[in-house]
Amino acid sequence: MAACVIRRTFLSTVNKYNRKHAISVLNVDLNSRQTLNRTRLSCSLFNVQQKRLMSSRPEGKVLETVGVFEAPKHQGKYETGQLFLHSVFGYRGIVLFPWHARLYDRDVTPATESKPTEPPGAHRSKEVKGKTHTYYQVLIDTRDCPHISQRSQTEAVTFLANHDDSRALYAIPGLDYVSHEDILPYNSTDQVPIQHELFERFLKFNASKVPPFIPRDTLQAWQEKNHPWLELSDVHRETTENIRVTVIPFYMGMREAQNSHVYWWRYCIRLENMGEEVVQLRERHWRIFSLSGTLETVRGRGVVGREPVLSEEQPAFQYSSHVSLQAPSGHMWGSYRLERPNGTFFDVRIPPFSLESKKDDTPNGFLPGPFTSLA
Questions:
Q1: 134 and 281, same structural domain?
Q2: What is the value of pTM for the model shown?
Q3: In this structure, is the dihedral angle defined by the CA atoms of residues 320, 218, 197 and 186, taken in order, positive or negative?
Q4: Fewest CB atoms less than 10 Å from the CB: which of 27, 233, 329, 343?
Q5: Are residues 269 and 132 in the same domain?
Q6: Residue 274: how many CA atoms within 13 Å on its side-chain side?
Q7: Are residues 35 and 122 in the same domain?
């Protein structure tokens, strides 16, 4: 995984050299620790006129040139059609459109106003104030999905469509939400640089534009029609003993069941080891508070059937799950129990986050595909 080199070495190298030199050589093999070490050397020692980004082929054996590196943007935002490597998970992707989210960072943001408000009984109450931060809706290159399977689900956007089966949950695979600082931009002369079934439905090549991939009308129509369940609005982050937990909740819609309303949310969580000690996630403990007055406790082994190891080689793990309430709003918070190599355990806090409903505009007639039912 490219996280250690890119986050801790590569970016600092770029910041140091990008004013004086065009680029330095970067080779990225997502499965090789030795390659990461070589990458550290290449970033530090070589200055050439062009820097070519390399990404491993699906079999993980051969490095493949994918494009020419561009300096990351410290101001402004990336445009639709920007190619990039994900700085943590290493996959190739392309930006569809940006979102402006409120980031509630419980590590660094003292404030006088608390939003969202924690329900009674939430752990370690601490007031935070949201700060505007840019995230991007992106397409993931399907060739890189095998490389990220051990450190992330292959992200999908899930939603409730108008359908006879009110329990049906649908997913469009290969869509992710990426923070501005996780974008490592590059350009390519390939007219179809990303392999995804939606790429040519949403984007077209225009050599006169920068970047040269521009949105089709179908992308703009899809965004407008499905805005309610695509929208990213709040991001919550907290670090405990060098383990950072980031949560992004999404409202999915409402369903009628047995003469009552059931409201659904998806939440995406990333755990990231910011230290050097290897740890393994063993248990999860959730508290779910509903506006109806109920408080539910959920305990279980691991997450999504896995107990991921967070190490220097693979410091991050990301997954999504779902929750439903019989009320239009509520809160969630909790903790993960992690194990150290010596057999001792410690708890990592999951920052409290709100579950807020919106106008119930579920997708009803413009689904681009591919999508699958998860019911």
A1: yes
A2: 0.77
A3: negative
A4: 343
A5: yes
A6: 11
A7: no
